[in-house]
Amino acid sequence: MYQLLFTDHGLSATEVSSLFIIWSTTAFLLEVPSGAWADVFSRRKLLVLGTLIRGLGFAGWIVVPSYAGFALGFVLWGISSALISGTFEALVYDELAARGAADRYAGLIGRAKSAALVLNLAATALAAPLFKLGGYPLLGIVSVVSCLAQAAVAVSLPEATRVATADETKEVEAATERLAGERSVAEGTAGDGPVAERPAGDGRVAERPAGDGSAADGVLGRYVAMLRAGLSEVATSRVVRKAVVLVALLGGFLAFDEYFPLLARGIGASTALVPLLIAGTVAAQAIGGALAGPAYRMRGWVLGVGLALSAGLLAWGALSGTAVGFVPIALGYGFMQLVIIVAEARLQDAITGPARATVTSVSGLFAEVFAVLVYAGFALGAVWFALPVLVAGLTIPLFLTALITPAALPPPASQSEQGAEG
Prior knowledge:
Helices cover 76% and strands 2% of the residues. The chain has 422 residues and is an all-alpha fold. Strand 1 (195-199) and strand 2 form a beta hairpin. The longest helix has 51 residues, at 105-155. It is globular and about 50 Å long.
């Protein structure tokens, strides 16, 4: 409904797209740095902080319903997205790995995201009666309350020991020790003191220089070491690198749904009917996510063909000009969700280093880059083309992504372990 909030307050399609660009740019700038923090600090606390910041942004939209207020809200939402992206996936994977159940990741994360979509569906269905009851202010209040509920759930999550081999842990320790030595030399102090290791409360490795005992230096050293470890794995592992690119491309295509409400409004749907049309796409996503577990071992070429068909369905629905067109849109979006979760799960299995959240955040960063390009394309294209044509045009890069899916998708875990590359 927030797209309609913007247009009902006088914003044009170009201005709405510029807000999306602000949103994605903020998340883009903070994506990888926040991922590295999640590999050093408590992921659970970062999830709590992220949901609270998002709620603050929603409150700002209601208090200051202007372009400036909307932009501020999207900045806060971008910060929230960066804190949560990669953090949640890494927390879930390491929790399962600590219990010897990493092979259940695809099914569990698929069901979790489906549950989130079902709740999103319920919220979408309630949007129309809530709007009639209290307008946009009531919708904003309910959104803030939902963020508080998310924070409460995040507080209850367990946080297991990070998954890393002894060699990988030594690599991070060595990198931290080198950084401490470099700072000592730069400051003209003795850097020959050993690095003492102490156990962290949640099982993570936590080093501190034995020289001056500066906690800040230890934290900074671990942060930079994790950042380097994550970026190094993306740069040196071809399997991980291809998976990161594929997940980023697929994640960027989720920019589609930001324009579905405007597409529905364009065919003459009332404000009360728009949420019901969008509900169909959300329901299809939930079904696709729930099926990601069984589809985890599906061959890459099968997923690629399905993704290509999804592109065709989305284009057909966008150009239909009727409410019935949202049926093929929902089908295409549902299968795209299935492929996204399978790709994300195989990326998690392909990661072998200690900086899991950082690597995951790299894919999130490039997804934001692609999303910004999509939003910019809509903003510029709106000058010459109607929205249905622009949505249909976006399915062309989706079709091209389907062509590279078989080659870029990592094999299932059991196969990748047999032929893993470093």
